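BACKBONE GEOMETRY TOKENS:
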Amino acid sequence: MLWHDARTYQILFLALFLMIGLGTRDWTLQPGMIAVAIATCVLTQWVMVAVSGQGVKGRRQEAEGGGQEVEQGGESRGWGKFKAFSLYPLAFSLHPSFLSSLPSALVTSLGLSILVRADHYSTMVLACVAAIGSKFLIRVQGKHIFNPGNFGIVAALMLTPDAWVSPGQWGEEGWYALLFLSCGGLVLRRVGRWDTTVAFLGSYAVLEAIRNVLLGWTWDVWAHRLMSGSLLMFSLFMITDPRTIPNARIGRLLWAVAIALLTFFLRNYLFLSTAVFWALFALAPLSILIDAVFPGDRFVWSDGAGEAREAEEREMTALVT
């Protein structure tokens, strides 16, 4: 069922944040840029699912056919490795693999629309292609390493001269924080990843409190630094992505604390306003090592057809949510 999938709530909440931001903040974001982000993410997801899914099918056919030529739809699929590059992806337009992964593509596109600013459409296209492509191309044991939205942000910042992120675009108004906590809390309740948010925000708050005391600042400064809307969005919607964070709870806690430590260092000693994104990008590969030390069950999105999709995911290791 649609409402059993936590990504449905993510899409609704991110769309709400986007509309509120456009209506109440002075953002330099055009509707055309949002449309480009959505179209690019969905198209890239379709292409990657088609190509990767077809490759698995081709290998299965080769194994079953003993290297013999296979006929599908009256067309020859060729021999050996060339089976994996036929025109079969056309059949994936409404394939369950694509439909089940479509919400993730929409979540990524909305997240990038909220956070990334660019002067040219090509920059947004690059960010979206990098975000979706990273799920398929940078994987260890079938699990993608980097948070897609975060990877797209870093790729745009590193590879283009006109991309930027404005962490202070939400301001520090209390009602923003209440809205983010309420909406983000509902999503986290459904995916069961409150521990990651609490560990990250708690560790970061303690570090900022110690610095606040050492510098002799008043506590309103401390509250001001923690009430950033972008920091809360990162804590609730990005660092908690269940498909890229460690599987075991103890692993998630250690990982979140490590990101908080690096974020604190980058923000206060290297003065990077986008510290949270660089910290997550730098420490994302650490989740693979943590999974090896603290193994746990891998998260699978559930939308009421979970068993069917879990079986398909085990069979098609290239499938990503």
User: Anything to note?
Assistant: Confidence is low (pLDDT under 50) at residues 54-92, 303-321. The chain has 13 helices and six strands. The radius of gyration is 21 Å.
